[in-house]
């Protein structure tokens, strides 16, 4: 037993020594990136899938838990693959050119996005839309920073909020099929289900009655 313990401690020391080797840093960063992508994807998707599934999806408890597990796995896997691909391509470009330049980041991420997130499915669609909204805000701020557009005299956020809500409700009312299914479900709950009730039970306590009265 003592011999096994000594072997484990020696293995841990060797592993820690390897992790301190500067020449292996790029390769180890790729592996750590894969790990962080998997963990972060699971942390983000699991609670979201749990809430959305139990709020809006029908089916047995087993079916709901299976759906949550599948969504969590898909998000975690895709993010892990993307980080692995991105950091690997970034390291390869830096090694080939001898230095890192901004275009390396863009190219590596483009290739990773094409390979990992190119499949048009609900999980990838949500991730891309999440990123797109952040990109639009980021590019707007960058354009002001660089002087490409003048600094607004007043905070433009109230106008942005008005246009976003006006547009999404118009789409929901007249072109619903253009919106993502999860958004349709949320807006149906908020704006259509609130129009229907029969008594106090489904006015205040439940959204919809389950009986046939």
TrEMBL record:
Domain of life of the organism encoding this protein: Eukaryota
Any one GO cellular component localisation term in the record: peroxisomal membrane
Native source organism of the sequence: Toxostoma redivivum (California thrasher)
Name the record gives this protein: PXMP4 protein
């Amino acid at each position: 037993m003592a011999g096994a313990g000594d072997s484990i401690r020696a293995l841990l020391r060797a592993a820690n020594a390897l992790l301190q080797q500067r020449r292996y840093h790029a390769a180890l960063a790729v592996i750590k990136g894969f790990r962080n992508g998997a963990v972060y994807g699971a942390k983000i998707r699991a609670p979201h899938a749990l809430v959305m599934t139990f709020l809006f999806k029908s089916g047995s408890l087993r079916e709901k838990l299976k759906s949550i597990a599948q969504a969590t796995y898909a998000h975690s896997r895709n993010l892990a693959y993307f980080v692995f691909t991105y950091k690997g391509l970034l390291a390869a470009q830096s090694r080939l050119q001898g230095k890192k330049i901004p275009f390396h980041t863009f190219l590596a991420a483009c290739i990773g996005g094409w390979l990992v997130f190119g499949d048009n499915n609900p999980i990838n669609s949500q991730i891309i839309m999440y990123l797109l909204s952040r990109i639009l805000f980021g590019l707007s701020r960058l354009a002001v920073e660089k002087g490409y557009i003048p600094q607004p005299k007043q905070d433009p956020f109230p106008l942005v909020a008005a246009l976003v809500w006006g547009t999404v409700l118009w789409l929901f009312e007249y072109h619903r099929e253009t919106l993502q299914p999860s958004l349709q479900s949320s807006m149906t709950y908020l704006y259509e289900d609130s129009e229907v009730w029969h008594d106090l039970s489904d006015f205040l306590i439940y959204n919809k009655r389950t009986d046939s009265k």
